[in-house]
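Q: What does the assembly look like in three dimensions?
Context provided by user:
Components: four
Sequences:
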Amino acid sequence: MDNRSKILETAARLFSRQGFSGVSLQTIAEDVGITKPSLLYHFPSKETLREQVLSELFGHWATRIPNLLRAVTTGEGQFEALMDELTAFFREDPDRARILIREILDRPEAMRASIAASLGPIVTLVADSMRKGQRSGLLRENVDPEAYVLNAIGSAMAWVVAASVVEPIVTGGGKSALSRLERELRRAAHSSLFSDPEAGVERRPSSGRARPNAER
Amino acid sequence: MDNRSKILETAARLFSRQGFSGVSLQTIAEDVGITKPSLLYHFPSKETLREQVLSELFGHWATRIPNLLRAVTTGEGQFEALMDELTAFFREDPDRARILIREILDRPEAMRASIAASLGPIVTLVADSMRKGQRSGLLRENVDPEAYVLNAIGSAMAWVVAASVVEPIVTGGGKSALSRLERELRRAAHSSLFSDPEAGVERRPSSGRARPNAER
DNA sequence: CCTACCGATCGGTAGG
DNA sequence: CCTACCGATCGGTAGG
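A: Here is the predicted structure of the complete assembly.
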């Protein structure tokens, strides 16, 4: 892998764990195995490095959009497909959630724009699809679609970060906090959305989960 | 107010917005109106200041525990009372959520212990009370009580932070993102918990909310 | 991609 | 609670 990519990867990892201002260019350079001026040859300032790390992250997110669109329009198992995409995105790299949360905390005004651009269209699309489901009686009529979707995304981000820290409280039966919180997260998201508790889960083998009523 | 308290207040505000490593002692001292060595007279190191800010926060949380216990044992309107306490805690000072999240991100191992101590007993208590409700048929039997409570707390923290950044997506009908996300958060939490959609909401005037089916 | 170096700022101390 | 000061480290540049 070329040094530029190594720098981006290392910076993302360190930023997610110690925060942008908690990591020095020196530390990143050492970790990559080059000197600080060499790092500054690839990224002319620390601020540029931050922007590139963030734009890589949004790039990975953009990669998922086709899957999301397919899930929205499929008609069957929509819910499971969307939740699979959402949880997979953060589970396959929890640092994504950490970086996003840190950026929201550090620069809320800047993130408002990025979030509106990257999330707004999909939220609107999913919300419109949900309104159809409400008219057909499949979904509870008192759901606020946009707020529901944003809360789901927020919960998914909280999930990944919380799991690293609540292990002593929630661990039992040999299951990790991560998987126990995820199961409950998905159960609650489903249960609070559908009118009929059995609806929306037919088809789709899904990631090892059965109908929400099974086991436990 | 004495300078010590002013320092704690200022540090909490700045830490929440820029992070611990993003704020210098100089900046805090200037904001309070004293010099840096004077600040270091009250708090012998920056690390000490961090600990004191955090311990103040946990102190405020401890203040609520009697209310929480009363809510758990009251038997009627338990759900609304607990949700009122939870949302009020973060709404009356959103910086609390920001500081807690930052600490979890910055020092997960240290926070694991603090969280187990401050949250563990209450989570267990509420979870036990929920298991009773499950046996009586009031609550859905497929809920994972501990995970439910922790997800609710995580969602509440995500709520406050997300609201500052999703305004353009979720605003409509003159309602702020904060209140629209809160309403949906509470609706979903209720709906995913109770077997009967109307249960658990009798009594209690509550904070301006009606039964979940009303309006909208 | 490196050596050598810059001014500014960091957390913290001495001494009063 | 302040003045004066410390060594270390910060992001960044010159020049090759």
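Follow-up: The first helix of chain A runs from residue 3 to 18.
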